[in-house]
Design goal:
This protein is mostly helical. It is built from 6 helices and 2 strands; from the N terminus they run E-E-H-H-H-H-H-H.
Length: about 270
Amino acid sequence: MHCTNCGHQSQNGASFCGQCGNDFNSLAIPRPITDSEGSTGPRLVPWRGGQVALGIITVVCVFLLLLAVIVPAVGIDNLAAVTFLTSLVLGLVILSAVALIGLLPYRVWLSSLGIAPLGVPSVKVALMTVGVLVLSLGSTALYSALVRLSGFEILEPPEIPQGIVLPGAGAVFTFIALVLWTPFTEEVFFRGFVLAGLLSRLGGVGAMIVSALIFSAFHIAPGVLIPIFITGLLLAWLYRRTGSLWPSICAHAGQNGIALAVTILEL
């Protein structure tokens, strides 16, 4: 039996956790972490690095398997359909892995993933969210400019192809997939599951760095590894400062939405 507060393994049938004193007779919601300034951060979760690694391996393997089916079935030339379907499938794989590896085995609530009310005043959260979005966009623009000046074309962020958007009214589905669905599922996984699972072992800064590295590695293309890493750090900081995933989801959605709008409008 694992404690839902601290992850400590106790004997089956025990009434209380021997490490933190959690009452096993009530379905406890993992408690939030409060720093020295009184800000509420991510909740302590029962899963650890082993479960995080298993989740990452599961998501990668299952997604690659499904991708091997989707691409031949739809056709690699139909980029918009492939993009929409892969976004949908990857999100479902992510949520399934998080539920099966993190939530269900320990009988914890969605609040342990950060699907919870804000831990700081809403005006402050709004300012932090906008600030993170601006910093993320600004750092990406600065990185692109520096790479162009250096002449290392392989490190330049690739342009989003026009064919990524479904034609006509189908653009709405592309918007839902890339601006709403993808930010939600990725934040649940990289911040709510990965970052939170690494906190107890690596501490705040270490967990932020490692989770941002993993987030960056998932995007594969050399030209986005550094910008995505910076964005991952900013989103991790926002999650830790607010104790809720919603601000990170909003900032992530804002960045995706701006990128998609630029592509559609050919700016």
